[in-house]
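User: Please predict the structure of the protein below. I'd like the answer in C-alpha cell form so I can feed it into my own downstream comparison script.

Assistant: Understood. Taking the following sequence of 144 residues as input:
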Amino acid sequence: MGPCYKFSVVPLSEAIFSDALCQKWLSLAAASDNLRAFQQSPAWCAHKSRLGESIDVGVIETVPADTSEIGVMPVQHTRFRHTLGIGRRTICAKSFRCLLLMGSQPLLSETTEDQAQLDELFRGIREQLPRIDCIRMWGVPLDS
C-alpha cells in the first residue's frame, strides 16, 4: 500500500512567509516541464494578489508528514460564465464560482506523483472549499 496524503488550503499571505513551503514550492516550479509553470511561482501569485485577485495555495503532503514528499497547487478564486447560444443569440447564461488551477496542473514531486495524490487533491478541494462549483484549467495535457 502506498503512502496516505493530506490536502490543506493555505492563504497566499501565509504560504509566502513559510520558508519551508516556499522553498519546496520554488523547487517544484523550477523542476516542472509545464509550459505554464511561471504562472505557478510564488512571485506570479504575489503579483496577481497585488492586482486584487484572490489566491490560495493548496498543499498536499504525506501522512505522517514528510516534507520530502509534497505538492503545491496555487489556485485563483474566480467566476466562470457559461453561455448557450445559437448563432449570435444567447439562449441562457450561467455563472459558476470556480477555482482556476494556475498553470493547469498541480506541482507534484515526480517521485511521488500517483493517482492517490490527485484523488486526495480534488477530494480536499471539494471538502475544504464546498462553495466552489467547478475547477477550471487551461491546456490540460492530452496524456493526463
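That's the full C-alpha cell string. The mean pLDDT is 82.
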